[in-house]
Amino acid sequence: MKRILFLAAAMLLALSCAPKKADAPKALVLYYSQTGTTEKVALAIAEKTGADVEAIVVVNPYDGDYNATIQRGLQEMQTGAYPELQPLTSNIAEYDVVFIGYPVWFGTYAPPIETLLGNEALKGKKIVPFCTCGSGGIDTSSKAMAAKLTESEVLPGYGVRAARIDAICAELDQFLKAGGYVEGEAVAVEEYPEAVAVTEEQAAIFDAAVAGYAMIQAKAETVAARTHFLGGQEYLFTAKDVNNGATMQVNVLVEEGKEPVFTQVYR
Ligand SMILES: Cc1cc2nc3c(=O)[nH]c(=O)nc-3n(C[C@H](O)[C@H](O)[C@H](O)COP(=O)(O)O)c2cc1C
Asked: pLDDT tens across 221-246, in order?
């Protein structure tokens, strides 16, 4: 019996990964998630930091069909007619830090977040964006958020591809430690060295990482490599789109014994 209890406690510890911080600022996690991916990150952040958490609910929900969502989302962004939200039950005024989570739509935060950002109570708060995406968008969406929330402090954010949702436990630990939201020191990460022309072997790593992702049809040109904080190699490629010649930056991770995966694209 004791052994079972011990194993259960060890499993719980392994799942929660990093201890909550005793003197952490009072934090709230607000998130919008259409298909449940961002919700996983939101709940993990709340669990790890001890923050309160609330989902943003759209009065007239997106109906779940991908094409209909694309059409409606595009129209909302083009016309500026952003969706109405159900009132929040949380009182933002009670919090120091607000984590704001969303799926990336059309390169930035999804339209319900535009409505949320109009909430006056966010003024003066520390805001931590986080997102899930198909290929990337934490940089562009964070910048858009900072431009919109000129009277708040928009801090570095966390983004993860939906295809890598299983990586969030370790990555969130690193991110939350680095931001001082949980106890412990983040693993020191070396800077990327200067980029150099890719070798054939590195070009093959790039090709393997983006294979099967139709939105990236590109040829790697330069690369910088460093050790990833979990071990393995992390690469920052610049690549040229074979269709329109545009340059993109692609981060690729190669963990020991695993196939290369791209972690984000920045266009
Ligand atoms: C309307 C729409 C637009 C999207 N646009 C992008 C995009 O520009 N870039 C990207 O990387 N992913 C894009 N995606 C993919 C979503 O960001 C991704 O599937 C996300 O993890 C969904 O999160 P959710 O399950 O919390 O709704 C888009 C998805 C939809 C439905």
From this structure: 999 999 999 889 999 999 999 999 99
Residue 235: closest CA among 208, 253, 255, 217: 253
CA dihedral 57→63→65→71, nearest 10 degrees, is: -90
Q: What is the C-alpha to C-alpha distance for residues 202 and 149, in angstroms, rounded to an integer?
A: 40
Pull the structure tokens for residue 75: 């129209």
- 157 and 219 in a single domain? The answer is no
Residue closest via CA to ligand 1's atom 28 equals 105
Q: What's the CATH number where 19 sits?
A: 3.40.50.360
- Whose alpha carbon is nearest atom 8 of ligand 1? 106
Q: What are phi and psi of 200, to 5 degrees?
A: -60, -40
Do 173 and 229 have their domain in common? no
For the chain, give the number of residues: 267
For the chain, what is the domain count? 2
Q: What is the C-alpha R_g of the chain? A: 20
Contact 176, 45 (CB under 8 A): yes
Domain that holds residue 208: 196-266
37 lines ligand 1 (CB under 6 A): yes
Is 210 part of any domain?
yes
Helix ranges (DSSP H) in 17-149: 37-49, 66-79, 111-117, 138-148
Confidence of residue 57 (pLDDT cuts 50, 70, 90): very high
| Statement to judge: residues 123 and 35 lie in one domain | yes
